[in-house]
Design goal:
Number of domains: 2
Shape: elongated
Order of helices and strands: HHHHHHHHHHEEEEEE
Largest sheet: 3 strands, antiparallel
Number of helices: 10
Strand content: 5-15%
Distance between the termini: 94 Å
Length: 341
């Protein structure tokens, strides 16, 4: 590599390091917010459940059904209370800056390197540099320090100057490589943290919503039965079952705070292997093959920074239409015509 390329590589590590510092600071804010919101979800769920009393004077069958619904909600509340335990504490790389070489540190390394190779000791005037001059030297770009070698007092000593020049360039390259290793470690850390974040929402948060939607779906079927029977308890049951929407709303807002969204394909949409997972097939002659007949479980999407397309974290589970073709068995006998002949 040329001197210019070496210096550019070192300067690029400085820019990348600033970006990584900002990225880690952003992650810290996200994790702090997550811990606060988890605590809020647990408290909200518990408060709603504590206030969830069954309507009075219900018939025995309706009361038992609602009690079953309440027991199911209790499990969702319990699952939400475990979120904080499922989230793993983050071991932040607090000392990563100590191993990173800054331009000021590189300037000092270059000076020390020059003094080590010089056979001419510094006189007293050179040793008594003013505070202002020292500050100027610290702020000097490393590239300028390398250039000094060609204009130094030892310029007439060509062989020694050439040795120093190569030594300094090698030193800059060495420090750039050290910085790149630090940056690689920070990249590994942020990638691992992102995977943990996605996994937590997929395997801990969304299952709470799955349970609530399952209960809501069962309740909707029950309400349809009550309406068909013209049950007098219908209105009070519907009002009580509205609690599912309140719990789901809390969890939906929790997801959206961190740019996650539930993905629900439309029934009748064509099956998409990129975003859906087939878990069964069904015959439905009112629909075409490969159409979605039923959504069993929502998918999960994450809106990515600076990207238009969201990232699929979990595919939606669906049941797909697959109709059998009716084929007339070939018996080898001549089939009768419409007149029966």
């Amino acid at each position: 590599m040329t001197k210019e390329e070496v210096m550019q590589a070192f300067e690029q590590t400085q820019n990348s390091f600033k970006q990584k510092e900002q990225e880690i600071a952003s992650w810290k804010n996200q994790v702090n917010l997550l811990e606060q919101k988890m605590d809020g979800i647990v408290n909200a769920f518990q408060a709603m459940y504590d206030g969830l009393d069954l309507p009075a004077d219900l018939d025995e069958e309706t009361e038992n059904q609602l009690q079953n619904r309440k027991d199911g909600i209790r499990l969702s509340v319990k699952s939400a209370s475990r979120l904080e335990r499922k989230w793993k504490d983050i071991q932040w790389p607090e000392d990563f800056a100590e191993n990173f070489v800054t331009p000021e540190e590189l300037v000092n390394e270059i000076k020390a390197n020059k003094e080590q190779h010089s056979d001419k000791p510094k006189n007293s005037e050179q040793a008594e540099t003013s505070t202002e001059q020292k500050q100027d030297e610290i702020n000097t770009e490393p590239a300028a320090e390398v250039e000094k070698e060609e204009t130094s007092e030892q310029k007439n000593q060509a062989g020694l100057a050439e040795t120093e020049r190569k030594s300094d360039i090698e030193l800059v390259q060495e420090k750039a490589e050290i910085n790149e290793k630090v940056l690689d470690g920070l990249t590994d850390f942020t990638n691992s943290l992102q995977k943990q974040f996605y996994s937590f929402f997929e395997k801990a948060v969304v299952p709470v919503i799955d349970g609530l939607y399952s209960g809501k779906k069962f309740s909707a079927e029950w309400i349809s039965q009550l309406q068909e029977q013209n049950n007098e308890e219908n209105e009070r049951v519907i009002e009580w079952l509205d609690v599912y929407d309140r719990f789901i709303q809390e969890m939906t807002e929790f997801l959206e705070t961190f740019n996650f969204h539930l993905y629900e394909p439309e029934e009748g949409a064509l099956f998409d292997e990129e975003t859906m997972e087939p878990i069964g097939v069904v015959e439905n002659h009112e629909m075409e093959d490969e159409q979605v007949a039923e959504i069993v479980r929502f998918g999960l999407l994450s809106k990515q920074r600076d990207k238009e397309e969201p990232l699929l974290i979990r595919p939606a589970q669906v049941i797909v239409v697959k109709n059998r073709e009716e084929q007339q068995e070939d018996t080898g006998e001549e089939q009768p015509n419409e007149s029966g002949q």
